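Friendly challenge for the regulars: who can give me the structure tokens for this chain first? No prize, just bragging rights.
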Amino acid sequence: MIWKDGYTSIKKHSVYFQHWVPDQTINARVLLVHGLGEHSGRYAHVGEYFTETGIALTGFDLLGHGKTDGQRGHADSFDDFCLEIDYFLSELKSSQPAAPVILYGHSLGGLIVLYYLLNKNPQTIKGVICTSPGLAPGYPIPAWKTTLGNILYTLLPRFSMDNGLPLDGISHDTAVVSAYRADQLNHPKISARLGTDLIRNGQQIGQRAQEVSLPILLMVGSDDFLIDPKAVIDFGQCAGKTTTLKVWDGGYHELHNEVFKEKVLQTMVDWIHQNTGS
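First reply, four minutes later:
Bragging rights claimed.
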């Protein structure tokens, strides 16, 4: 396994990225979009697992996250995230045109890749892996916070508040939860603009499942309480034959970090090989 990292400039922001590359021939490439408040470095074990099967993983830190520039937990719109995806998809295809590419998003990243798929109509990817997408929150958001977000959306879009994520619901593995809390690159912030966009886009995308045409591996834990599993299941059941819906019994939010993570990662690998012919 070869690991490389660096920075690039997108829309005048310095964006951090990482590559995990197989020592052998690359059979497929995966572009990762991480979740709210975290960063791409938390997926090193995913990259290591993928590379053992001939799959390369590229992860970047979203605007306002990890080692990338920007106010913590803020973006002017989801389209700013899409610019980052556009850039890295273009880079992956130009560097190795023959290797098929899969887009993989988790949580906020899962919602972003669905937004990208349905609004940007990408022509350079073979499919999407989407885990625990934020189609609807799984925990109650105080009415005052929603009202405040709507008011400040235009007036003070960068106004920041705590995202309220119940971190104990990340994984049944307490070591994962402890490591998350100790990781200085993680943050609990979300702006009025991003928080409101997350809720609005989740509602809108949840109603567009029938527009999905590319293959999707859609996965969620039945006991996830950071997002609403029912919203994900409903989306998967309405999306049609190109979508493979997998519900992990008893699973919490970060399936790739659950106590049964090897089964989750192998499911991803099998699906990638099946849908890329690699």
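The two ends are 18 Å apart (CA to CA). The CA atoms of residues 142 and 180 lie 25 Å apart. Your move, everyone else.
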